[in-house]
Amino acid sequence: MNGTTGTNETRSTEQHGTTPADVVIVGAGPTGLLLAGDLAAAGIRVTVLEKRPAKISNLTRAFGVHARTLEVLDARGLADELIPTGRKLTELRLFRSLSLDLAGIPSRFPYLLSTPQYEVEKLLLRRATEHGVRFVHDAEVTGLRQDADGVTVDVRNKDGESSAYRAAYAVGADGVRSAVRKAVGQPFPGKSVISSIVLADVLLKSEPDLTVAVRGDEGAFGFMIPFGDGYWRVGGWNRERAEIPDDAPTSLDELRDIIRRAFGSDFGMHDERWISRFHSDERQVPQYRTGRIFLAGDAAHTHSPAGGQGMNTGLQDANNLGWKLAAVLNGRAPDSLLDSYQDERHPVGSAVLRSSGTIVRLAMAHNPAQLGVRWLASKVVNNAAPLQRKALGQITGIGYAYRAPRGSHALVGRRAQDGQLAGGSRLYEALRGGQFVFVAPKETPLPAELQSLAGEECIRVQWADERELMMLVRPDGYVRWARG
Ligand SMILES: Cc1cc2nc3c(=O)[nH]c(=O)nc-3n(C[C@H](O)[C@H](O)[C@H](O)COP(=O)(O)OP(=O)(O)OC[C@H]3O[C@@H](n4cnc5c(N)ncnc54)[C@H](O)[C@@H]3O)c2cc1C
């Protein structure tokens, strides 16, 4: 990693007029790292400003990488490297009664990969660095302003010295307390959903069966997820202690008590590597774009960790924004393409808030009426295949689709499913070029109507089998056009 500090470089930028970046990204969390790598891979000059020193924390927050995120990583050649770091979980069990079977989902990755967030960040950081992203650490963004030509980002380093960076566009991927969001004056409306969740990574003397389990009973709910490294992520909430503030101390005994209430056993948990108490809000900015400034990841939306979707949703934001910014900066698309980032990602953010909110509210159910609703909802989802598919599509991310023009083929707006290509490769390997991919039966010329959509660098491939389907797939893996 390039550990240069901000001050000297910035001063030289300002004093000597050297070329500023095309894009400044604030925040080197998973969202900022994926976006930075995508832009740099497309030849865009990227500077990432990060207030932390140049070291990845080994304290993990997110633990689960869902199928759609693995597909996105596959389209960058990273999924196969990530998978050995974790454990594949094929069933999600919620509130004793609801079971979601991941094994049948139509993806190359029919499971939840349980692996610490830092493993994902490690791969994304390496890729971004290999593509030449400039990282500036100990650089806290304190404000930013835009004009007709670009954005100026104000930074303070750890010695309290100020400097400024200039770029054509800026992206706030600076997490839930985003300074960029505040600087552009975006509100973050919403409310607190749950407080005093106790969370820890622990070892267990006896392991429960290998599923992601969320259970609620006796005024408490708990969840347990195995990491790949022997530790378990265990968390829970106790109604009787729900008003305790985040900064009140917690202990393994408090967590043991919660888990015993929820699961009937504490599984002999011991040797926590960290333990913490936190609360969770449900909030979303109304606008993901303000002129030349974009918000992505937790800076744009936050919700309960139920369903394990925070990091996954941020990575999908980056997947959507990266190719669009690159296309505009490379002169291949008009600036208006960038408005589709809001049109496509804001509704997904809202849907994630709703689904994670539903899970956490059902988990907190305690009076007979609420428990009855939970029982009924579980029964219905267990027994109705379309509802089970919908729930799985939302949790894994493979079910989200973007709005398609009226009269489009049914696949337009959906994520392309991987498929075998002539020559032995796969569609998601073809997407590693970062371009539109036109896939068709053998020897099919690119239809004239697609010439301007796909651009000159469109990659053309052929199915390995005899299927008639033709698709133009966007660089982010979503179908732009289809026939057959
Ligand atoms: C306790 C806990 C448990 C969680 N569990 C899960 C889970 O199980 N599954 C899941 O999917 N998600 C989970 N999450 C959420 C997940 O960790 C986040 O959604 C994810 O990290 C968001 O990534 P991001 O890149 O958008 O933001 P972040 O990871 O927050 O990264 C933002 C970066 O910006 C930097 N930054 C902030 N302000 C500035 C500034 N002013 N100047 C420069 N840099 C700045 C920060 O140092 C940070 O590196 C959990 C979160 C917490 C707190």
UniProtKB/TrEMBL annotation:
Requisite cofactors:
FAD
Which Pfam family name is an example for this entry?
Rng_hyd_C
Q: What is this protein called?
A: FAD-dependent oxidoreductase
Gene Ontology molecular function terms on file: FAD binding; oxidoreductase activity, acting on paired donors, with incorporation or reduction of molecular oxygen, NAD(P)H as one donor, and incorporation of one atom of oxygen
| Domain of life per record | Bacteria
Q: Which InterPro entries match?
A: FAD-bd, FAD/NAD-bd_sf, RIFMO-like
List residues of the FAD-binding domain.
Answer: 21-355
Region Disordered, as annotated, extends over 1-21
Biased amino acid composition, Polar residues: 1-18
Query: Which keywords does the record carry?
Result: FAD, Flavoprotein
